[in-house]
Write a structure and sequence with these properties.
Aspartate Aminotransferase, domain 2, about 400 residues, 4-stranded antiparallel beta sheet, PyrdxlP-dep_Trfase
């Protein structure tokens, strides 16, 4: 069976791209295109044109000690990175970073997620604490929670179905991965704790409506700027006891975080903040560039959908006022959450009919009519994705 793609999402500003599908210069003959991953290579052209502005030079005698600042609770956090993180959040307005908040750096937000599960658990409980997230939830949460077979915590599934009168930790991702929705806690019971994963709460993906002010918040360098290979994430935590337990987890598991990686992250975050504050900047700052690029990609996908035969649909996203941009903007999530309106296995369908590899709904706690498609690949790969989706539509229409 061959199917097409329809668009049912809320309209956005008209794309600046003149055609729906632009033929890629290569890859058309490749047997498989993998858009199951969230590898953010979309931003490579921007950082390439920045040239030496983001260059970091490190002498051979630098960063030889384990320690950055023994006076800081997070003793392996570079002061330059601490300052850059707080400055950028203040410029963007997406999180509270007052001086009474603790910043803890990790080897990506994945390590910090494990650290927070450890910090929010208690060895005094008779049973492991339940960890839940509302479906569709990030597909790695169940695996990461189960991986160490910890006696402190266990995966307990969909928060929408959680009815136990027991302690729990709820993981809230907002904007959500995979469907881009804005979320809050679901369970809201006494004895509950929450981890707020805000990896995609940046202006290129969603309107910044307020400063997030939760007890424990996670951010990641990879989705904020695209530098996934640097492996830097950070937690913003209110409670000193919880922050100290997170630091202890990272101390035991990796004896801190690479200072070279931290310095690179500090440099790049600083450049972004400086450009956002520079009213005389010639050209776009990073978030303007990212928002335009994501909007153009979503415009192409929506335009393609309007020309298809209605067998697929996308979520609708309401416009909202963005305090960073000072205008009403659309959400342009990092992933397209496709649903088969014909109750077909969406992941299998795209793989078998067009050799497009995606990540299916069951990985996210929902049925197989859904699948997740990354919007963050390189231009040539994204154009190939559109080319193949258009070919499916064309076959349906007899073209």
């Amino acid at each position: 069976m061959v199917v097409g793609l329809v668009e049912t999402a809320v309209p956005t500003a008209k794309s600046t791209i003149s055609s729906v599908v632009k033929k890629p210069t290569f890859l058309s003959s490749d047997p498989i295109i993998n858009v199951a991953r969230g590898d953010p290579t979309i931003y490579e052209p921007y950082w390439k044109k920045m040239g030496d502005r983001c260059k970091v030079v490190i002498a051979g005698d630098e960063f030889m000690s384990y320690f950055c600042n023994t006076m800081n609770l997070c003793w392996f956090l570079l002061p330059e990175l601490d300052n850059a993180i707080r400055t950028l959040h203040r410029v963007v307005g997406n999180a509270m970073v007052d001086d009474d908040r603790f910043i803890i750096v990790g080897n990506g937000s994945t390590q910090l997620f494990h650290a927070l599960l450890y910090a929010l658990s208690s060895p005094d409980l008779p049973e492991p604490i339940n960890v839940v997230a509302a479906a569709p939830f990030y597909s790695s949460y169940p695996e990461e929670t189960k991986f160490l077979r910890s006696k402190l915590y266990k995966w307990a599934g969909d928060a929408n179905c959680y009815d136990k009168d027991e302690p729990y930790i709820e993981v809230v991702t907002s904007p959500n991965n995979p469907d881009g929705s804005i979320r809050g806690t679901v369970v809201n019971r006494e004895g509950g704790k929450a981890i707020h994963d805000l990896a995609y709460y940046w202006p290129q993906y969603a309107p910044i409506t307020s400063k997030a002010d939760h007890d424990a918040m996670l951010f990641t360098f990879s989705k904020a700027t695209g530098h996934a290979g640097t492996r830097i994430g950070w937690a913003i935590v209110k409670d000193k006891v919880i922050a100290a337990k997170i630091v202890k987890f990272i101390e035991v598991s990796s004896i801190g975080v690479s200072r070279e990686a931290q310095l690179r992250a500090a440099k790049i975050l600083g450049v972004i903040a400086d450009d956002c504050r520079n009213l005389d900047l010639k050209g776009e700052n990073f978030f303007e560039y990212g928002r335009r690029l994501m909007s153009e990609r979503w415009g192409k996908l929506r335009e393609l959908g309007m020309k298809s035969n209605g067998l697929f649909s996308l979520p609708k996203y309401p416009r909202d006022y963005c305090k960073f941009t000072g205008e009403y903007t659309d959400s342009n999530p990092a992933f397209a959450w496709l649903k088969s309106n014909e109750v077909l296995n969406c992941e299998n369908l795209l793989r078998d009919e067009s050799k497009i590899i995606t990540r299916g709904g069951p990985s996210f706690g929902v049925d197989s009519t859904y699948t997740r498609v990354s919007m963050l690949s390189r231009d040539v790969e994204f154009e190939l994705l559109l080319e193949r989706l258009a070919a499916i539509k064309g076959t349906v229409n007899g073209n």
